[in-house]
Amino acid sequence: MAERGLRAPAWLEELVRTSPASVPWRDVTRFALVIPAPLALALAVGGVEGPAVGAGVFATMGSLAATLAPQSGPLRVRLRRVAAASLLGGVGLLVGHGLSGGGWQPVLLMVVVSAVAALLSSISGAFSLGALQLLIYTAISSGLQTPLSAGVELGFFLAGAAWGALAVLVQARTEALDPDRSAVGAVFTRVGELLEAIGTDRTEQARRELTLALNAGYDRVIHARSRSAGRSRELAELAGVLNAAAPLVEGAVASARGGVPADSRDIGAAHALATAVTSRRPVLGERPPPVEDAPAPRRAVRHGLRLVWNVVGDPEERASAAVVRPAPEWRVRLHDLFDRTLGSADSRAFVVRLTLCMTVAEIARQLLPIERPYWVLLTVAIVLKPDYGSVFTRAVQRGAGTLLGVLIGSLLLTFLHRDAWVLLPLALAAGALPWARSGNFGLFSVFQTPLIILLLDLATPSGAGLVGARLVDTLIGCGIVLVFGYLLWPQTWRAPLDDALRDATLALDRFVEAAFTQGPEATRRARRGSYRALTELQTQLQRRLAEPPPISTRAAAWWPVIVQLERASDAVTEAVIAMRAGEPAPDVAQVGVLCRALRQLEQDLREHRAPDDAELYAEGVLAPVAREVDAARRLIRETTPGRRSGVRGTDD
Questions:
Q1: What is the residue range of 158's domain?
Q2: pLDDT in tens, 105-116
Q3: Is the peptide bond before 611 cis (omega within 30 degrees of 0)?
């Protein structure tokens, strides 16, 4: 008990936890060389006191935006992110000039910019990043006074961005492995690891990693395909390989659930397929022979391996399995765009939230007696991003990370002269960014803050005395986000995972219906949808665990329910394998009863009431599925806080 009393609360441990990550040395080298290079050129040409330093600062801002934009992924996706970040960041530089001074005109301009940025964030990942850069450089430009005209600033910014994009292109062309092929090959690696883990305590984690690999593979190869004819053909073939892997994945999941040990030849074959797909080489070894005298899950694994072996090893089979994705009509694309922006309740809510916070920050910029108040706008823009995790977590980590970053920046400004030596800490801070962003938001801020401070000090000298004021500005910005973007919103205090849990329940319902009443293709699509919904549910859980009670404690109560829904999905997969092995299909009426129970469960979650305690009856292969669904209903009824049996609308 004494030992437990010395431990920090679980939510605080989750808040400060960093994700373990290896050092991406290629990215570290690129960041350290590319980001300060424009400034180094400017200092070499004109020195610190010459007019060239301003041009170097803006060019370095452009290289910073373009270098930070791409992360892992295919080259086409990286370049889209670079283009969005660079172009919208440049727009922000121009718009920021209209925010100087006081009055209502800058406030109204900030309202418009914030609303546009929020809507852009809903379109795609690239536009979401671009919207962030739009807000960031609008904030910086509003307080950065230089002798350069707006057009000259924009020109040097875009030149620096082009330099950063060129470095991204060079690195991508010199990479040994194709990210698309690596994503598909990872699926077979995870299959092999799951087969190896059967019977150990690593089984559940291995199964979740297989689901994540499948999600990443489909996202990368199918949903992000380029329209280039030659490249699309290769991507279509990789999509065909993924689809051909569906029986293998189903067999591996069924084997893990049933505890059926894998044949060592199957494990080796899965890793051989991963190597062949990733490296564009022929599959090594012989195709495993069929098996007849073995449990159904093991036969399913062998059958799946033989199918994929044919597709990967035979170009004609691979071409015939290719997935042709027709381009949607412009009306369909326009309708989809509307659904993701103005037609989405979540998107509209974020427009109001971001606009409110940025407007309050702009009013604070005008009224509060603080130096360089644009840092308040900058903090609000960075913290209040919709797709970067919990708002509370970002605000706290940003404040703590900036505190350390400000102390580092203050020491550097105290002991460094404004000369070429400033390039050394700039390069070191830039080189640490790709590693730090894999840890957490606060660690990233520790290195980003001194980099920006040193850079802006070259444009508008302020000295070490002003650095402490930046900490105050940052705390004001974090406070604005916590109050106006977090505490005042009813969604913050509601059951945090209700929406994601309802989505996972409906996805499981579709999986059950497809598995027992529809064909193999519909079953595989529904299975992918079910596991993807469960992955999103786990992601939402991890975000909420880092928030203070009662939110974190209520989120933690959902964990057994999530595990039970995963078991139910695995049970459906096991039933599909059993039916393929000759077990009779269940009675359609029993399937209908189970589907109605799942839909009723979703309705119970929506109306905040406990499910009834009636036991589901099923026979044959459907019986294990019904038992797992019953267990999930019981957990929601008995262990989830805030539920009251027979009472609608209650929520503590």
A1: 22-175+332-491
A2: 889 999 999 999
A3: no
